[in-house]
Amino acid sequence: MPIKIGVLGTGKTKHGILYDRSLRDLMVEAGRKAMQDAQIDPKDIDLLVVGNAASIGFNSENNLSAMIGDHLGLVPKPNVRCEAACGTGGWAAHIATLGILSGLYKTALVIGGEKMSDVTTDVGTSIIAQAADAKTEYFGGHTFPSGVAMYATRYMSRFGATEADLAHVAVKNHYYGSKNPDAQLRFECTIEEVLKSPYVAKPLHLLEVCPMTDAASAVVLCSEDVMKASNRPQIYMTGTAVGSGTYYNTCDQLEDNWALVKGPVDQAYAMAGVKPDQINIAEIYNAFSIQEILGLEAAGFAPYGEGWKLVAEGQTHHDGRIPINISGGVLSKGHPLGATGTSEIVDVVQQLNGTFAGVKVKDPEFGVSVNRGGPGSVCVCYVYQRMS
Amino acid sequence: MSVIEYRRTAIEKMFLHGYTCNECGVLHPFWESYTCGACGSSNLTKTFLSGKAKISHIGVAYYPPTEFKGEEPYLLAEIITEEGLRTSARMVKMPLDTLQVDDEIKSTIRRVKVGDEGEIYYGIKFDKA
Asked: If you average pLDDT over every residue of chain B, what do you get?
């Protein structure tokens, strides 16, 4: 049976290397924008959930939800921080949905945020790598890109895809990112330019790997009765599920990555009573090009092993059969770890209510978001519906 | 990683081993392991591996974390051990184009990194057999 969690308001900051903005600057901006969009005051928020993956490493700050609650005037309302690697934002929203569905809370403000540019790239890589087993894998020099590169190679050898086929993902995402005023990497590129960019971890090139990003994004979620009583566009989360997978990059095989998404997205579809062919807009986690391909296959938009053809044929463009990552995705929009999941929610909801600032999908009714994280350790899915 | 922490885990890092589930027989990779991912049993036994393996897939890290700066680009590989365990391996320094799929390799003890105060951390890497 579908759940009905209203998305009362959304807000986000620009994504980028924002040297003059602090983590709290970004999260307060996104939170205020979401409450303003929802047309409610802080006193009407029952719960604050903050998603942040690594502020202890990036910013030497902890107890983040208390800090943001204080700065947003939400004291003495309850607040909690959620951490689940790149799946943090999605999980933070899931915590809020649990609170609302239980009847304990009527409204919840969910803010995902990350400030990554206060450290150099190699230090940032170290912090991120510690989201897999730091005591064994990272100790030997294994990083996330190298782990993903392994199953990219496996995918290519098994299904006949080439580096050029994977590059189509980057070309499409950078095209749409160039049209998104909030994206970090706002440029277009060609297949040739992707293939000429240096390897980060062979076979993955620089232009098909996400950047480190400063950004925050937020949503106000609410119960059905609060949503109906508002004059806001009636956008609901109607299905959600969370799945888990391995904590180890070295165990993160191709099949594991497919299954990691397949389980929760099928559960979310079933809960919402929706089939993949009804979906009009999808945001699918794509820190690396191969992850968009595997994600769209697991989400039911193409058979296993054939997703790369869908991308190469242009079927994932805004006017294609299934528009995917019209925001530019993580590849172009940027990957502020804790804010990526909430950013997906914001972008799908804004497509559904027609306020998205980049390229718009024509009159979408159903949406889905897939927020995976860690080596292959977590995946949070939502199905959305615009109702009259 | 502190020296104290390394002292606690050095044995684990020096001897290539996995954990065999005493219930279903599945062999798991070579870190501390508490639960069998296949059947859920917590009855596991440490199993030393021969160190012989074959290359399954090859990867190269071009942008390393802080501790490995200066070593890039370095070779990583997905390997299948003689015991049938699929895992990944850091290769010893060698030209990038010298490694091929299906090459036979063997484990060896090498310097993994140097700490902030000059302390040397050793661990397992793989070399061509």
From this structure: 89
| pLDDT over 90 at A242, yes or no | yes
| Residue contact A141–B112, C-beta within 8 A | yes
Query: Does residue A148 have a pLDDT over 80?
Result: yes
Sheet holding A234-244, edge to edge: A79-82, A47-51, A107-115, A214-222, A5-12, A234-244, A378-387, A366-373, A281-284
CA distances from A75 to A45, A105, A193, B105 (A): 10, 15, 50, 60
Q: Is B34 on the interface with A (CB under 8 A)?
A: no
- Domain map of chain B by residue range? 51-128
Region A5-120+212-235: CATH code: 3.40.47.10
- The Cα of B118 is separated from the nearest Cα of chain A by a number of Å equal to 16
Interface mutation vs chain B, best among A123, A127, A144, A150, most B CBs within 10 Å: A150
Give pLDDT, residue A183.
98
Instruction: Answer with the residue of higher pLDDT: A248 or A312.
Output: A312
* Predicted confidence (pLDDT) per residue in A173-198, tens digit: 999 999 999 999 999 999 999 999 99
Strand partners, A215: A114
What's the pLDDT score for residue B57? 86
B59:A250 CB<8 A: no
Q: Averaged over A96-101, what is the pLDDT?
A: 98
* Positive or negative: CA dihedral A183, A184, A186, A191: negative
Decide if B125 contacts B112 (C-beta within 8 A): yes
Domain boundaries, chain A: 5-120+212-235, 124-211+236-387
Please list the active-site residues of A: 86, 335
- Of A66, A377, A369, nearest to A251 (Cα)? A377
pLDDT at residue A116 is higher than 90: yes
Q: In this structure, what token pair is assigned to residue A212?
A: 């480190």
Q: What is the 3-state secondary structure (H, E, C) of A55-114?
A: HHHHCCCCCHHHHHHHHCCCCCCCEEEECECECHHHHHHHHHHHHHHCCCCCEEEEEEEE
Q: What is the mean pLDDT of chain A?
A: 95
Homologous superfamily of the A124-211+236-387 domain (CATH): Thiolase/Chalcone synthase (3.40.47.10)
| Distance in angstroms (rounded) separating the CA atoms of residues A335 and A338 | 8
Cross-chain Cβ contact B31/A251 below 8 Å: no
Q: What is the DSSP letter of A361?
A: P
Rounded to the nearest angstrom, the minimum Cα separation between A44 and chain B is: 44
Q: What is the pLDDT confidence band of residue B7, given thresholds at 50, 70 and 90?
A: confident
The torsion region of residue A79 among left (phi > 0), alpha (psi -120 to 50) and beta comes to beta
Report pLDDT for B2.
75
E strand or H helix that includes residue A11: strand A5-12
Q: Which of A178, A268, A130 is closest to A284 using CA atoms?
A: A268
The answer to whether A153 contacts B74, with C-beta atoms less than 8 Å apart, is: no
